[in-house]
Write a structure and sequence with these properties.
CATH topology: Uracil-DNA Glycosylase, subunit E
Strand content: 5-15%
CATH superfamily: Uracil-DNA glycosylase-like domain
Helix content: 25-40%
Radius of gyration: 23 Å
Bound molecules: uracil
Amino acid sequence: MDLIPEPAPNIRQLLAFYLEAGVDCALTEAPVDRLSEPDAPIAPVPVRETTPARPIREVPAATPAVPRSEIAPPPEAAIAIAREAARTAPTLEALCTLLENFEGCALKNTATRLVFADGNPQARIMFVGEAPGRDEDIEGLPFVGRSGKLLDRMIAAIGLDRSKAYIANVIPWRPPGNRTPTPQETQICLPFIQRQIELVNPDVLVTLGNPSTQTLLSTREGIMRTRGKWFDYDTGTRTIRAMATFHPAYLLRSPSYKRMSWQDLRAIAKALEQTVSPSS
Ligand code: URA
């Protein structure tokens, strides 16, 4: 069967096809033919005995389409490994190193680099978004693209800047083509961001947009209902005040919601004024 359509697509049409399929960046300089990679030996598989008994037959080694180092453990195992690993990280640096070496989330294989955090780990306020996009993947820092510029203005609206705020994402690797992270990917990354929040220990946690809010504040309500309300976030060692507000990318698409967002920010500023930090 011939799979190449007639007439054969030109380069422009092929690129348009890739873009539509979510392939919007090159991972390496040269193409890699996964199908021609050498066989990885696999253990002989015993074949069930029948009557009369036959000798155990060895099944020929199969060719994995993905190199073994890129095969993540099954989601349930990865979640358990992530929980155990994140729990043991004594510092943010240790947590970052753990994530650098963590093989449980396949997003790591398609991302350029880990996007751990930006800002001040001593900050009294922490913002958490969903996942890095293209600009963040290139720079290795959260919220540096267009929505990052708006986040900077939101932070400035409460009299702060990145030197007085800490910024991270629920997912620290860019999903290919900016697709929505799967529920499994979110669950695998969740113990790490939870530990990150516990270690930063801010007075106020701000979740940006629906995915971050629903994941961290354990609610199924949409952002229109959750925004502007105070939640208790239990870090495991302390309960901190948390508020959801619109994701800056959403505000770029729907600027009429900026007014509500400024209301949320005013409430956040007031809470910061009222909250006395344990370290101050
Ligand atoms: N959107 C996010 O949720 N996080 C980023 O870091 C950038 C865009």
